[in-house]
Amino acid sequence: MIHGTNVIDDFDEISSHIDKLLNQEQQYWAIQLCNTTIKEIQTSNLSNSEIMRRYTILIDLWEHHLRVLVKNFYANWPLIYNAYNFLFEILFLIQDFSRLIYNGLRLAKVLVKIGFSNDFSIANFLDSLAIFTARADYFKETIELLLLSLFFKKNYQRNDYFERTLAKLSEILRKIAHDQRPILLKSVSLNIYQQFFEGSIKYIEFIETIYLVSLNKIDKSVQEAFHILIKEKVHLMDPGQNLDLTQQTIVNLQMIKENSWAYSIVQNYCEELKNNNELSKAKKFLREFIKTCYRQGSYQTAFLAYEHLATFFTNFKGFPTYLVSIWAEAAKKFRNLKDKKYFVRAIKEYRDLLIVPDDYYSFKDYCYARNEYYLICRGHIFTSKEDFWWAALHRGFFEEGYLEIVTLSAKQLGIQDHPCFIQLIEEQLPFTINRIKERRISRKEADIGGMMPSEILLKLRIPSRKPIKLFSEIYYKSGFSKMDNIETKEYWDEPYLNELYLNLPVYSTTMDNATHSEKLETVVLEQQQFGMLAYLFLPQNIRDFIEELNLRSDHTPEVYVIMDEPNFPLEMLNDQRSSFGSKFAFGYRFREPKLAMEKIKVGKSQDEINLKFTMLSIGDLNQKFPHVWNEEKQQYCPLFKFQNGEIQRKFIEEKINNLQNLVDRFSSIDPSYSSKDSIEKEITSGIYNIIHISANMFYLDQNPSQSYFLTSNNEVLSIQEIIDMLSYAKQRNELQGLPYFRPLLILDVRIIDESNKSIPRFFTQIYNITKSISSRHFIGIFARISNEFNDMLKLYLGEFINHIFLNESIGSAHLKVNKQLFNISQSFSDENEEDSRLKMILRESHYVFIGDPSLKLE
Fold first, then answer.
1. 568 contacts 497 by C-beta, under 8 angstroms
2. Model confidence pLDDT, tens digit, residues 400-437
3. How, if at all, do strands 780-784 and 847-851 pair?
4. Crossing angle of helices 279-296/244-255, nearest 10°?
5. What H or E segment, with its residue span, contains residue 745?
6. Which residues pair with 848 in a beta bridge?
7. How far is Cα 349 from Cα 323, in angstroms, rounded to an integer?
8. All residues at 6 or more sequence positions from 486 whose CB lies less than 8 Å from its CB, including other chains
9. Closest listed residue to residue 505, CA positions, set 497, 492, 519, 515
10. How far is CA 805 from each of CA 209, 372, 855, rounded to the nearest angstrom?
11. What is the pTM of this model?
12. CB under 8 Å to 708, separation ≥6 — which residues?
């Protein structure tokens, strides 16, 4: 059940009623109902994704309403005026400036087309839009609006926001070489020209008007680029020019994280490739562009590029599998961001493609796509009953072979007589059932070397709005034990399952027949049907694990369930053979903050203690990249010099050289040759106790685990990739019978944010990064959280390494060094300004450890 008022509970019904009011031109009541709904959304406890989904539905209703009204513009002008006002209010509320610009331009185009307003009024309207976009730092969009405004005004009027925006354009142009500047300016001007005029005037007329109006009134670099556009033919794919010039311009803009400007070129470049019958090249180029945008945190540009990529797959027969896969990929990427509008828009594009096909193989693809849609949405935005039953149908057909559930689902969906469904019953269902039978016959009992388990303990963590986890402990009579963690990507949140449970028949010993609640439009199931249906909505890897246990009659496995919110007893789950109540002894606990395995800590014997350690040092990775054009030197120069990176690397090297009796191996990667491959080779060896990194880290606030370093050959190396390398090392070493040491990660970094600024103190950023990654393959992260690295911090890091190499716990080493620095600070006087400053430095928290402080180097 969804918590909140009736407006929230019945949102789909309310939005349908708003649509009816708009179709009847009852705008006043539609606006009143929308305002009430918006207030309820703002005070609800819905997820961010669901909130954005509801706003998007309201916006879609008003956009559709306007498309109908403008067909009879003069008669409907009062309604059009009110509708645009209300639509803009919603867009301002959620800060969706890209959609605001889209609707503003659409209105301006209509006004021009029908001659409703003069050029000066159109220009003033465009200026108004530009003011809002400039305030939101949408500089590229502001430039496009202002170029359009100049064309209509036919004169140049100075104002603060115009000057600030032109200064930004000039700044961008000066960061790239002279021969690349006209390419960028042509693309920006061409995009707004194509959006607005659609061939009603010539492009050269448009650009010449702007040039003449702004002559000698704008920055020299911008004016020169305009001049070249007019006097010379600038083509994105001119055989007479360097074919790589356009691509290099895009690369250079992306290198300095100006992806929205780069996309102006990409749009036109890919269209020219398409027109030259090089569609596959255009698709590949767009995918690479999207990948870079996403990794650099340019999510709006990445979404726009996905929209462009989707246009290349519009000519298809049958079910649009490729197009669906594009939007599935986009939705999964954007789902992890704080700003949910791109996720919601991507999943809407996905949903709009889900139309039941008529041929058999397309129908199978469609079933898979419906299940994937459900998986992507579950736990993030509300899914419909139709989505629920399609997911049940898919899992019943292709995963478990449940005829009863398949038939029930088809009946609820109204496709029980569909020829493709009947063919699936005849062909797919027997195939799935036989595959499962063969799997059960070949499956061995859970054992270690043939030993039978004597005790099985399972701990199932079902958090609210988070994926399910299963922890298992299997004990054997010989004394051996085996522990395992099963992590899933699937959420348990499914209100419709709870509704079905509440409507199950109630059997009474005093009545012959079962009774159930009289709830309209609700399916009434038998308990076994419900149990099988609920079992299907467990993540598949958990279902597989339970199947693999191959429980015997003498087993009494215990299941400890920890839920944030109770829903229904899991004893009712049914795998078609029997209910879980006859398989497991259940215990529950609700709202437990966290789940962890209980482990008996046994101290290591002296022989087992590692007396010599290994260390990897990676320093000053991005000495050359990203680079920016230096007008004075007439060459590209590094944008973020980080001399401390090399200083720290050399300090670590000197420190380790003085500890040869405690060091078995020390590797230091030369910054000049620090390619991604060379780093991966060292990390995946799995032999290092410590991995020390001192370099610029580019932080992504909306996706912290993808924060990244740049290597010497300009490759992106994200934090998540480093974690994946450690995971691979652990698995490989285990398979080869080699030891794997969970390393301590020391991040001695400078953090650069998405606006290319260095953050002075970055505990929050480090915390967000560690919170977003799995820590199973390393013992923790020891991170510097201040931007300076001086002699005091050399002392701090050096002493910390001394202590942990002497087999002290990380927490103890950290504490002792803090005490040592504090004692030193006592000798400084508060009266002397320099002494006082040093005292404050010594007492500041420069490093933090995120992990278990009782752990030692392995």
1. yes
2. 999 999 999 999 999 999 999 999 999 999 999 998 88
3. antiparallel
4. 10
5. strand 744-747
6. 783
7. 9
8. 469, 470, 471, 472, 541, 542, 545
9. 515
10. 72, 49, 13
11. 0.82
12. 295, 697, 698, 700, 716, 717, 718, 719
